[in-house]
Every structure is written in structure tokens, then in C-alpha cells.
């Protein structure tokens, strides 16, 4: 079964200045192992689309299925279980400035449910392995202020990936980065798919990111999927 399915999903925010819906009758299927891009102008509904997947925004109509769960039918406990399958990276990720890189990532593990959490002894190796994975094995003892923007973004990725989520949601993960550091972040996202088996959904305004990274992409316009692209990827990994 697809990992994400939206069927006739609509959302209008109450009290919004703009009377138009943020999502307007969206049908969308995303398959396991895809890297899926979401593009569109500011206000097109991209963030709302991501937020309905984790149950943070409740649609007015339609059906949202994520990893086999009917999101609209979930209670508090079900939503908590859903969210452990989803890793999230936002633009301007917030790291705890008084904690080391290693502690920032370890905290994400400690917040995961007791039943799935690695034992205390296994947490440190899991954190170090994930820092290696994002290319920051040498930075574990540093504090966020000592890192570059691209490195901080990769700490955010390590934090999102350390519990091995089936689905990774990224909102403009490269928006404040230069070309080199953007490539570093994209490489991590591609490896998350290839080596950790995550499905990745990435909001971006950068068509080069879509071309380099995504398998398919949707163009949103005023809350509707205007076009669905299959990307002929120009593989930056070579
Ligand atoms: P995008 O991520 O593409 O910029 P959003 O999903 O953030 O689009 O927003 C879609 C529309 O919904 C916009 O008109 C925005 O102003 C509106 N909107 C988003 N979030 C809220 C909210 N919490 N309350 C009211 N309106 C909102
Ligand atoms: P972006 O478009 O970069 O995703 P936005 O600036 O549109 O971010 O939105 C940032 C946050 O503010 C989101 O959580 C969104 O839901 C919320 N938001 C956006 N538009 C509105 C609005 N008109 N009223 C209230 N909250 C909003």
C-alpha cells in the first residue's frame, strides 16, 4: 500500500483573512521509497499539506491515510503512534543552544516511546551512528553556535532520523543555505531514502532541488494540485 494517500482532502482555516481554501479537493498518492517534492508559491498550501499528514491540521473533508492509518480516525494515542513514524525538519530548525550536538540528537531519542526506545546503553551508539550518517561524526561535542548553517541543518536531520521514521517531512530544508551546503543536505536526504528506507517529502521553492533530488513532484496552486511531475533526475551524487 502507498505510504501516503489523500483523497478529496479540503481545508479552510477559520478566521483566515483569505476566504479561499488552503487545500482544495486534493487527491495524492505517495509511494514508499519515493522522494516527493512539493512546490508552489507562498500561500499555495504546502505547509498545510505537510501538517495534515501528521494530524497537526485536521481537514474539513476527505481522507488522509499515512502508513496504513486513517489519520482522521486516530485518537490521542493513535496520533502519538503515528508521529513516531514521522520525522520532521523545518526551516530554521531549533536546536537547544545549551546542549551539545550529541545531546540535541539524543533528546529526540529519549522522547520516543519507551517501548521502542533503545536501552540507555544503546542510545549513545545510535546517536553517534546517526551523526556519522549526516557527516557530523566529529561535531558531537560541539554546541550549536559553533556550527555553520549547513551543519546545524544536518543536526536537525540527524535528530529527525535517529528514531528511523518511515516518513521524513522537510519544509524548505535548504532555503537559507549556499550551493555547497545545499548539496550536503540533499546528499543526506537521498541516503535516508537509499540506506534507511525512509520515504521523503520535501517542500521547496528551488527547482534545482527538485531536479537533483526528487522522483516526483506536485505543483500546488491555491490549494489544488495543478500538476504532477515525474522528474528526470540530474543525479548530483555522481
Ligand atoms: P504555503 O506553505 O504554500 O506557503 P500554507 O499552507 O502555509 O501555504 O498556507 C495556505 C493558506 O492558508 C494561506 O492563505 C495561509 O495564509 C493560510 N493559512 C495557513 N495557516 C493558517 C492558519 N494557521 N490560520 C489561518 N490561515 C492559515
Ligand atoms: P511557509 O510558507 O514558509 O511554510 P508561512 O510563513 O506561510 O510559512 O507560515 C508559517 C506558520 O504560520 C505556519 O505554521 C502556518 O500554518 C502559519 N500561518 C500561515 N499563514 C497564517 C495565517 N494567515 N494565520 C495564522 N497562521 C498562519
Automatic annotation (TrEMBL):
SUPFAM superfamilies associated with the record: P-loop containing nucleoside triphosphate hydrolases
Molecular function as annotated in GO: ATP binding; ATP hydrolysis activity; transmembrane transporter activity
Gene Ontology cellular component list: plasma membrane
Keywords in alphabetical order: ATP-binding, Nucleotide-binding
Domain (ABC transporter) ranges: 4-238
Pfam families linked to this entry: ABC_tran
InterPro entries referenced in this protein's UniProt entry, alphabetically: AAA+_ATPase (IPR003593), ABC_transporter-like_ATP-bd (IPR003439), ABC_transporter-like_CS (IPR017871), ABC_transpr_LolD-like (IPR015854), P-loop_NTPase (IPR027417)
Listed name of the protein: ABC transporter
Amino acid at each position: 500500500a502507498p505510504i501516503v494517500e489523500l483523497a478529496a482532502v479540503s481545508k479552510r482555516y477559520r478566521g483566515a483573512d483569505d476566504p479561499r481554501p488552503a487545500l482544495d479537493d486534493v487527491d495524492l498518492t505517495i509511494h514508499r521509497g519515493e522522494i516527493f517534492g512539493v512546490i508552489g508559491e507562498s500561500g499555495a498550501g504546502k505547509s498545510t499539506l505537510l501538517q495534515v499528514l501528521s494530524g497537526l491540521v485536521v481537514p474539513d473533508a476527505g481522507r488522509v491515510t499515512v502508513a496504513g492509518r486513517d489519520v482522521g480516525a486516530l485518537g490521542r494515542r493513535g496520533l502519538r503512534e503515528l508521529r513516531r513514524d514521522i520525522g520532521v525538519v523545518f526551516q530554521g530548525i531549533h536546536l537547544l543552544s545549551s546542549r551539545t550536538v550529541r545531546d540535541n540528537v539524543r533528546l529526540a531519542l529519549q522522547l520516543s516511546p519507551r517501548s521502542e526506545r533503545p536501552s540507555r546503553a544503546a542510545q549513545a551508539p545510535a546517536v553517534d551512528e546517526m551523526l556519522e550518517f549526516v557527516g557530523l561524526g566529529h561535531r558531537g561535542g560541539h554546541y550549536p553556535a559553533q556550527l555553520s548553517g549547513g551543519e546545524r541543518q544536518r543536526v536537525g536531520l540527524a535528530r529527525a532520523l535517529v528514531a528511523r521514521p518511515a516518513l521524513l517531512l522537510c519544509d524548505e530544508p535548504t532555503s537559507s543555505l549556499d550551493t555547497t551546503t545545499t548539496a550536503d543536505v540533499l546528499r543526506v536526504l537521498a541516503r535516508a531514502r537509499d540506506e534507511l528506507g525512509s520515504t521523503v517529502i520535501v517542500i521547496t521553492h528551488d527547482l534545482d532541488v527538485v531536479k537533483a533530488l526528487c522522483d516526483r513532484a506536485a505543483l500546488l496552486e491555491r490549494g489544488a494540485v495543478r500538476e504532477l511531475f515525474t522528474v528526470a533526475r540530474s543525479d548530483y551524487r555522481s
